[in-house]
Amino acid sequence: MPFEKFDLENLNKERRKAIAKSIRTISLEELNKLGEELFPGADHPWRETFFRFITENSGATFHHAITSDGVNILYCRDKDKGMWFLPGTGKGPLQARGRQIMKEMIEGRH
Q1: What three-state secondary structure class fits 63?
Q2: Hey, is 55 helix, strand or coil?
Q3: pLDDT, tens digit, 9 for 90 and up, residues 37-90
Q4: How far is CA 100 from CA 14, 45, 77, 81, 91, in A?
Q5: Spatial separation of the C-alpha atoms in residues 83 and 25, rounded to whole Å
Q6: In 3-state terms, what secondary structure has residue 36?
Q7: Looking at residue 52, what DSSP letter applies?
């Protein structure tokens, strides 16, 4: 499956259950640690994007979830922005439908 654009719109039941089960608030400290693990080299092309996303929204609440197949989703509801990543494979911005699904999961409407 190509991961250039993660398709949250067509989530199967298994992925949706995993997101609902794993979604939680994640602290800035945890986000920074996660970023260091994901992008250990200063020259990684996504490192700056990841940490800028955190810095620009440092006063906001972030949520983290993991699908049944290991895709991590970060979502900032306050700014309605997010990103997905599969460690070592792919990363990208969370599209509009994916952000809507994350909102519903946070509100318990899954």
Answers
A1: strand
A2: helix
A3: 888 888 887 888 889 989 988 899 999 999 888 889 999 999 999 988 887 778
A4: 18, 27, 10, 10, 19
A5: 15
A6: helix
A7: H
**Cβ neighbours around 52 below 10 Å, total:** 10
Residues written for the chain? 110
Residues 68 and 21: beta-carbon distance below 8 Å: no
Strand locations in the chain (E) = 24-26, 62-66, 72-76, 81-86, 90-93
Question: What is the reported pTM?
Answer: 0.81
CB 8 within 8 Å of CB 95: yes
Question: Long-range contact list for 89-98, CB < 8 A, 24+ apart?
Answer: 89/3, 90/3, 90/4, 90/6, 91/3, 91/46, 92/3, 92/4, 92/5, 92/6, 94/6, 94/8, 95/5, 95/6, 95/8, 95/9, 97/8, 97/9, 98/6, 98/8, 98/9, 98/73
